[in-house]
Amino acid sequence: SVPINDLRSHYSAVILAYGAASDRELGLDGENTIQGVLPSRRIVEYYNGSLDMDLTPIEFNPEEHEHIGIVGNGNIACDIARMFLKDPSLFKSSDTPANVMSALQRSKVNTVQMIGRRGITQAAFSTKEIRELASLDNLKTYMVLPEVQDSMTEASRTETLDRAIGRRTKFLTDSFDLIEHGEHYEDVMSRKNEKKLILRWLRSPTALHSEGNRISGATLQKMSLEGDAKLQRAVPSTEADEDTLRDYKCDVLVK
């Protein structure tokens, strides 16, 4: 190790950069044993070329896995979604590692869902990040209408008076198609030849489902917001939810 004072004596500035030292836990049974439940850090290290972070076919098989779920809606979630949804031919001019490029060129992924505990005005991604993601070629973008409506509490409407929040919310409501109900959701999910990004709001995974120790989906608890503007928190809702919106199916779940 190098003492900080030694660095200070040789350099005019010292920047201490910290990354996540551990993976986020969902607190759900099986999340560390069910195949296909992957920490976001592992995915990021994989596509950034970390030498010891190649994904095994058990974790992600590009020729079989079509549906990726991401728990969270920050800039990292957007970055991961972009990697899976971007036209693979566009990676040729980038510094993407050869093994990653090969996997993405064979990828059958057609759907990515980003699952947020809170509502549309509390999204953690920036307008720039979500705009770049939504503008990918041949990508359809969706939100679920009841989730958007439930997001817009009086406190949430007050939050949109903040310029950045208001601009981001307007972009989402203007640019994303709305899934009106569970039957419509099933119809959208059945479109295998359509690449799509679906933003989910007020949903939190409460149980993982598997087939042969392979992730097959999760139960999504409907949440509701309480509290004042910019201090709202998500709590479990007592309202009934449609089965198709609660019983979530995926091939890979990124936490």
UniProtKB/TrEMBL annotation:
One of its GO terms (molecular function) is oxidoreductase activity. This is Uncharacterized protein. It comes from the Eukaryota. Its cofactor is FAD. Gene3D superfamilies: FAD/NAD(P)-binding domain. The keyword Lipid metabolism does not apply. InterPro entries: FAD/NAD-bd_sf, Ferredox_Rdtase. Keywords: FAD, Flavoprotein, NADP, Oxidoreductase. PANTHER family: GLUTAMATE SYNTHASE 1 [NADH], CHLOROPLASTIC-LIKE (PTHR48467:SF1).
